[in-house]
Amino acid sequence: LAKTTQPISMDSYEGQEVNITCSHNNIATNDYITWYQQFPSQGPRFIIQGYKTKVTNEVASLFIPADRKSSTLSLPRVSLSDTAVYYCLVAQTGANNLFFGTGTRLTVIP
Amino acid sequence: DTGVSQDPRHKITKRGQNVTFRCDPISEHNRLYWYRQTLGQGPEFLTYFQNEAQLEKSRLLSDRFSAERPKGSFSTLEIQRTEQGDSAMYLCASSFRASGEFLYFGPGTRLTVL
Fold first, then answer.
1. How far apart are CA B37 and CA B48, in angstroms?
2. d(Cα B66, Cα B77) in Å, to the nearest integer?
3. Which of A23, A98, B33, B80 makes a 20 to 30 Å CA pair with A29?
4. Strand extents, DSSP E, A1-110
5. How far is A85 from chain B (nearest CA, A)?
6. HEC-encoded secondary structure of B18-65
7. Quick check: B93 and A43 CB within 8 A?
């Protein structure tokens, strides 16, 4: 499993765009990059997944450079309800043993 | 469809007691996972079922832990002779495809061992 490195915590004001970068230097050719969000006392929830370039959905965007050694989760105009822990995962499609790491604790400030 | 459910949501037990947790996956999801999460850490994989077959187990799953999925629907996780180090959130997840995009987690069972 490719190891990931993320900032432990980040603070942002409401309405700002938040970018969380994840490093995964030993990502393999068959690995996908997946981000999850977790609120206190809840299980993680899928946000977005990508392989290369850019992926966008109604919640976030995911930017992946050509070398795929890092990725950036972008949350547009965050609100207080976006306060959560965000996990970056790297794994092959079909992997059952997902490695979550410690994640990034995002705190949105009014 | 109400998602993955887990019961109980909270369990307090004394050291040495046995505990059992139940997970009801989203119906028709043939894949079921158990994870454990301690304070300040991300979830750690424990075990994986495809239908009723337990296909993968983590080294974290010691001999005191046993998981079953007898009819390929709900699953149980039993911990025998609990230890204080077993205190954690136990998360269940299910999916119908082998991709993180389709993995749905339950709310978890928080275990406190006194």
1. 16
2. 6
3. B33
4. 9-13, 18-23, 31-38, 45-50, 53-56, 61-64, 70-75, 84-92, 104-109
5. 9
6. CEEEEEECCCCCCEEEEEEECCCCCCEEEEEEECCEEEEECCCCCCCE
7. yes
Instruction: Report pLDDT digits (tens) over B42-82.
Output: 999 999 999 999 999 998 888 999 999 998 899 999 999 99
Amino acid at B8: P
B36 near B90, Cβ under 8 Å?
yes
Which pair of tokens denotes residue B109?
């069972």
- Which chain B residues touch A41 with a CB distance below 8 Å? 107-108, 110
Domain residue limits, chain A: 9-109
For residue B107 the two structure tokens come to 């709310």
Nearest CA-CA distance, residue A45 and chain B, Å: 7
For residue B96, the SS3 value is coil
Q: Per-block average pLDDT, block size 10, for chain A (110 residues)?
A: 87 97 94 94 93 94 96 97 96 84 95
Query: What mean pLDDT is predicted for residues B10-20?
Result: 98
Q: How many CA atoms lie within 13 A of A68 on its CB side?
A: 17
